[in-house]
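Question: what's this shape?

___
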Amino acid sequence: MAKVTVLFGNDPQGEFPLEKAEHTIGRARDCDILVDNLGVSRHHCSIVQDGDGWAIVDKGSNNGTFLNGAQVKTQTLKHEDRIVLGKYSLVFDAYGFADKGADKRGATGGMGSEMTMFVDPEAIKQMQEKIKSGGSAPARVALSVMQGGREANCILSKTETTIGKGIDADLPIKGLLVKPIQAKVIKTDQGHRMVSTGGFRSLRVNGAKVSEKTLQPGDVIVIAGTMITYKQV
């Protein structure tokens, strides 16, 4: 019987025997393999029976499904293929059996109802290269939030990164009276500058209320009770 092993980086998170015709993978609680991370869509992809073998099928995910470094929509799986969803990987074992005592909950963390954080494709590529090489990717700057006990990073690779309640916000946050775009982080020659877009919710950096501020590594931003750290990753 085939199985998949879920990895965070290179750390095993759970094993799953492929026991039925389709196994759904994503952040929603009804998925067969739960990968609870902001970069993973609620119903991200599926592993489906394909004749005598298996195939990976993307379900219209926001950040894409990658197989051995290449983005795919539908692809037949081969032994030891690696499916990559953000920082998580699923290694396909065509001949293995899952440990009867294995944790079958997947990579959980309590974010199933949150919006998907859009992950920069270049960040995904660098993470894949890091996993394959076993080395360290170059340091990048990100907005880091804790969700469900796990850290999620929004890489600041764009000229302007948005924060808010709207579906198009790069970093989605919730809260009463939070605007669709509550704040922006703008890339400048001096680094990154945080700018409030106004409204009822204040923007605080290191406890002080600000309308805009040039950020330094380690700065803590708070909007509507959500704590965001500006840091290198």
Q: What stands out?
A: The CA atoms of residues 38 and 123 lie 14 Å apart. Confidence is low (pLDDT under 50) at residues 100-105, 108-115. The chain has one helix and 22 strands.
